[in-house]
Structure formats: C-alpha cells, structure tokens
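I am writing to request your help with a piece of structural work I have in hand. Thank you for your consideration; the sequence and its tokens are set out here:
=====
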Amino acid sequence: MVVKDYSKYHEPVGQLLSKTSFAGPTDYQLSEAQIHQFQEQGYLSGIRILDDEQVEILREELLEIMDPQHPGHHLLYEFHSNESEDPDRILFHCLGHWRMTPGFHDVLWNPAFVQIASQLLGNRSVRFWHDQLFLKPAEHGGVVAWHQDYSYWTRTKPLQHLTAWIALDDTTMENGCLRYVPGSHKWGLLEKPSLAGEMSGLTEYLSAEQARDLEMAVPIELEKGCATFHHPLLVHGSFENNSKRPRRAFVLNVFADGTCSDSGEALLEGVPSIQKGEKMDGQFFPLLFDATKRRE
C-alpha cells in the first residue's frame, strides 16, 4: 500500500472544508471583549469551528490512525497507545497525524481556526507547529497532568505560540474535560512535569498562592466541534474519564510567522533539523494564514 505524505501539500486536498466559505476576512471577527478576555485570563472558549458532519469524518480518521498496524505510522512524530504508566488508566496520544489523513490535514486550513488564531496572535500571520490527538476511553481514561505547553517547546523562540483544543465529543467534568487556571499565563515559565504522570506533579514548582489558584481551576465543558484557545504559558490539565462515554479531541499548535529554531537538533522526530536562529518554515511548518492579505 502506497502511503501519501500530506505534509507535501500546503492547501486543502480533501472534502472536509468543501462546504466552508473562504469568503471574507471578517467572517470570524472576534469582539474586543473576547480579545480582552484572552489577554487577561489566558484563554477563549466555546468557539464552534466544525459541524457534526466534519466531526464524524475526523472521528473515523482517528480510528484509522489508532491502528498500530497502519502503514502510515512512520510519518508520525510520536505514537503512544497509552502514554500513562498505569495500564488501567489509558491515554492515547500521538503527534503528526496531519501527514496521514486528508481530514486532519485540511482542518489546519479551516478559516474559522486560522482567522481566530491570527487575531489572538496580535493579527500576525500564522504558521503551523504541530498537532496532537488525545483519546480517553470510557470508564478508564487517564489524566493529562497540570502543565504549560511552552515548557515542552523551549526549542523554539520567541514565545509567540498558541494552542487550539478541539472537542470530537461533548466534553464534561465527568469524562475528563480540559481545566484552566485563569491568569496563570502571567506566572512565567515553569518546569515541565511528565505529561501523563501524577496530576499534581507541577505543584512542587509552585508558590503557596499559585497552588491555591490551581485548586480553583475552571472546567472547560465543550460541545463537539467547538474549540478552546489558550496561551502557551496557561496552566491546564484534565482529570480521568470515569464516564461511560469516550473523550476524543485534537490539538492544533501554531506560532506567529517569524518564529525561529533555538536548537540545532531535530525539532520533531523525523523532521530535518533547522539551525539555531533560523526561521521555521518549509514542508513541515507551513504558512496557514497570511495576515498581510487581511490588510489589503
């Protein structure tokens, strides 16, 4: 079986976005209040970017990707059937699936996503960093420990990144929804814990006041097809899934155009290295949205 590497295509190639309008640059204009909330709280939630039909397409592709025998797994940067150390608490997690299936490739160019991302990055052009898939199965889904995304990304500079977390199921407190610590993006860079380790691993690096704030984390319940955007220093995590429903989600990580490598080593497994100080672009870090066209 010949496997196509979709990273070679920097435009939509399938049908996922066929009914989506690419018309005007103000189709997905955020309000001043929404921008202010993101700046002050570190997140903006409840933004619908997919309809039910698109969600179903991506759910089917997720099943394909999860198959350990899939012939396209060499394209992935990481693949963990269970990233948790506890066999009774499952956390499926992989990176690089945009290279494997047309739907997860094309969703990068979803105008609802890229136009909002540009605004939250200060009306900058948006370039792709990498994607992630998460699945917490019903009744024994594992945790994602409290962490800051950028603590795992310091090989890229400057800090001008953004994360979008998109639900493929209705996510609730019962099935392990994402939780945010509002305002924690102003704490500065913290040490990184094990992503699927003890939920409380980050607390040893926090002050007493920060630890109290952690206990007041806000649950982000979302309908399927909706996204929550957060700052790369915002502390977040999610508890177990003890419900009778799965919790499936994917993540799109981006940065403002002009971000550079801060490492001479490979930035992602299997991706050619970019010398320290050089701009991140090319096949694996495509431009998703050109903000200069918004101003034309």
About this structure: The first strand starts at residue 43 and ends at 48.
